[in-house]
Design a protein that fits this description.
Largest interface: A-B, 38 and 34 residues
Number of strands of chain B: 2
Strand content of chain B: under 5%
Shape of chain B: globular
Helix content of chain B: over 70%
Radius of gyration of chain B: 21 Å
Number of helices of chain B: 18
Strand order of the largest sheet of chain A: 6-7-8-3-9-10
Order of helices and strands of chain A: EEEHEEHEHHHEHEHEEHH
Number of domains of chain B: 1
CATH superfamily of the largest domain in chain A: P-loop containing nucleotide triphosphate hydrolases
CATH class of chain B: Mainly Alpha
Helix content of chain A: 25-40%
CATH topology of the largest domain in chain A: Rossmann fold
CATH class of the largest domain in chain A: Alpha Beta
Oligomer: heterodimer
Largest sheet of chain A: 6 strands, mixed
CATH topology of chain B: ABC transporter involved in vitamin B12 uptake, BtuC
Number of helices of chain A: 9
Distance between the termini of chain A: 35 Å
Structural class of chain B: mainly alpha
CATH architecture of the largest domain in chain A: 3-Layer(aba) Sandwich
Shape of chain A: globular
Bound molecules: adenosine-5'-triphosphate, magnesium ion
Strand content of chain A: 15-25%
Radius of gyration of chain A: 18 Å
């Protein structure tokens, strides 16, 4: 078994009296795809925000390859290889689709902030951005302003930005939410391909249980901010806690029934 | 070649390009085609404000930072060169010294304000810049032994730039090549060079990150861009360019004082120019500065003519009285915002990348 790439220890955040994430301790391995499931408001997005640094932890620790990154800001964590695709699409609206992705490509370079080198001079970055767009079927929109995209394409661009960042830890937060049925496979295929490479750590928040079952190596269940179940997909989806608290009924009946 | 000079960011439409070429040609030929000291003064002022407005747009239009301290940096440039020449006597090394000292002071001040306050919310940053700029203006007028107080300082510029200097015995193309003409070309060429430099900065890898921060700060940070670094850097660069504009102004006017460089009236003018021209595109600075200064200088004359022409008609001559020029300018401003919410350059460029607003 490989050493964990990412680990959280007693990770907690408190909003006033409300503990949104409550002492979550778990680890994620390289090459493994972990699905994080739980009802609306369970704390999944908040848990992601703690890991990628958008929210500061009240207590607990986050370790990346054994290094404590709890004290780092979101930019430093991104530079260390934590990538994030947001549940609520977060783009650069008045820049083109290509520029959106290209900014992610550039962020990985040490010359990212170069004052003199022209944006349009970096052929290789331009090509890499186009490759990321190809992966989500968005090349035909490369010149469109992100703000002008239809909703489904915005979701794809959100994912393309993370792909272009080439992080070591990929965090997908309901990547297919709000997409039309025919668009969903593009994203699922992409995640499957990413998983097949075997060298990345993938975290996936997803409500659609059929998706979770087909992609995940492991499922973690959050309930009211508490890690309530953790194991292989078959065991977890069959467990009483998930059937009652999350699915509300038999696991089969909820397959494909996404929300949020 | 031209593409490289323009940092691969040529004007987005024919009409805009034509307008810019017209302005460039007008400014380049000003001493020969627009006779008289007043016309040359207007042309020089346009050159200076193109640089000042462009530098402000790097902050406001590209990075999304609202600062009210921009004229402070303009003033630092003006006083840096002005006081150096006043105390050390005319000479090119003195000019260079003044510029260097002003640049250092300006950038250090921008850095300090940036590091202390760019972490806070935009509105607080704007307030802090307002406070710092006020303090600086008060300090400048109070230290009258040194700065000349409210009166400012009149000084002598290097020999070559003085009105009495004649480069040739004979007039060239009907215009005597005086030190004033040379001073004008110094200002003009500096403006062209500084504008192209600013264009390069906003079209660099760095510049595109500034736009990303304007568009979505949280996302930029999540990609690994340290927003505070980029904002502070943008403040310093913009300050440095404003210092240069101030230096140009001092050399042109042979005078520096709070009215001409530090006052909030100028800050307001800069804001109007940047909004009329269009934020988030440096070409907007050229259009905005040119139109605004032309209006400021010639609207009154135009109105006097209109008032005379409409004599006998009730009310109209009184509305068109030259004293009402600010009122008319205000109306024009409101109309331009209404019809060109992205500014004139933004409108001409079509759906360009305007600001988030
Ligand atoms: N910044 C915040 N301030 C206060 N409360 C917050 C904040 N962020 C999240 N919460 C609360 O934390 C809880 C968990 O929210 P979170 O968005 O993490 O849920 P989720 O599991 O992602 O739900 P969904 O499936 O709907 O996306 C909610 O009760 C939410 O109201
Ligand atoms: Mg969520």
């Amino acid at each position: 078994m490989s050493a964990p790439a990412l680990e959280t220890r007693d990770l907690t955040i408190r909003f006033g009296g409300h503990v949104a994430v409550n002492a979550v301790s778990t680890a994620f391995r390289t090459g493994e795809l972990t699905a994080i499931v739980g009802p609306n408001g369970a704390g999944k997005t908040t848990y992601f925000n703690l890991i990628s640094g958008q929210l500061p932890a009240t207590s607990g620790a986050i370790l990346l390859d054994g290094e404590d990154i709890t004290g780092l800001g979101p930019a430093a964590r991104a530079q260390k290889g934590i990538g994030r695709a947001f549940q609520i699409t977060s783009l650069f609206p008045n820049l083109t689709v290509h520029e959106n992705v290209r900014l992610a490509v550039q962020a990985r370079s040490r010359r990212a902030a170069h004052l003199w080198s022209l944006w349009s001079d970096h052929r290789e970055w331009i090509a890499r951005a186009d490759r990321a767009l190809e992966e989500v079927n968005l090349v035909h929109q490369r010149g469109t302003l992100a703000a002008a995209l239809p909703h489904g394409d915005k979701r794809k661009l959100e994912v393309a930005i993370m792909m272009a960042l080439e992080p070591r830890v990929f965090m997908f937060d309901e990547p297919t939410a709000g997409m039309s049925v025919d668009e969903v496979p593009v994203i699922l295929d992409l995640i499957a391909r990413l998983k097949a490479r075997g060298d990345k750590t993938i975290l996936l928040v997803e409500h659609k249980m059929d998706v979770v079952r087909s992609l995940a190596d492991r499922i973690v269940v959050l309930l009211n901010g508490v890690l309530s179940a953790d194991g292989d997909p078959a065991t977890v989806t069959a467990s009483a806690i998930v059937r009652e608290a999350y699915l509300g009924q038999s696991p089969a009946a909820s397959a494909g029934g996404g929300h949020g | 070649m031209i593409r490289a000079l323009l940092s691969d960011d040529p004007p987005k439409s024919r009409l805009l390009a034509a307008l810019l070429v017209l302005i460039l040609a007008g400014l380049a030929a000003a001493p020969f085609v627009f006779p008289g000291a007043a016309a040359l003064n207007t042309a020089a002022k346009i050159c200076i404000f193109i640089v000042l407005v462009a530098s402000y747009d790097i902050l406001l239009g590209y990075t999304g930072i609202v600062s009210f301290a921009h004229t402070m940096f303009f003033g630092i440039g003006g006083y840096g060169v002005g006081l150096s020449l006043y105390f050390l006597g005319p000479g090119w090394p003195v000019v260079a010294l003044g510029i260097v000292v002003a640049l250092v002071i300006g950038v250090v001040l921008a850095l300090a304000v940036g590091l202390v306050s760019l972490r806070v919310k935009a509105i607080f940053f704007a307030m802090i810049t307002l406070a710092v700029a006020s303090a600086f203006m008060i300090l400048t007028t109070q230290l009258s032994e040194f700065t000349g107080g409210e009166d400012g300082r009149t000084f002598r510029v290097p020999e070559l730039l003085r009105p009495t200097t004649r480069l040739f015995e004979e007039p060239f193309l009907g215009t005597a090549i005086t030190g004033r003409v040379l001073a004008y070309y110094l200002v003009f060429l500096s403006a062209v060079a500084l504008f192209l430099l600013a264009l390069r900065l906003v079209n660099s890898c760095f510049g595109r990150v500034l736009q990303a921060i304007r568009e979505n700060e949280m996302r930029a940070e999540a990609l690994g861009y340290r927003v505070v670094y980029f904002r502070t850097m943008a403040s310093c660069l913009s300050a440095a360019l404003a210092v240069m504009a101030g230096a140009m102004s001092a050399l042109w006017l042979r005078y520096t004082g709070p009215e001409t460089t530090l006052s909030f009236a100028i800050m307001l003018d800069v804001l109007l120019m940047v909004v009329i021209g269009g934020t988030g595109t440096l070409y907007g600075a050229v259009i905005g500065a040119t139109l605004f200064i032309l209006a400021q200088n010639y609207l009154q004359k135009l109105m006097a003519m209109a008032a005379a022409a409409t004599e006998g008609i009730p009310l109209l001559p009184r509305l068109l009285h030259p004293d009402r020029w600010l009122l008319l300018l205000g109306v024009l401003f409101v109309l331009s915002i209404y019809f060109f919410p992205t500014g004139i350059a933004g409108k001409l460029a079509g759906r360009g990348r305007g600001p988030a607003a």
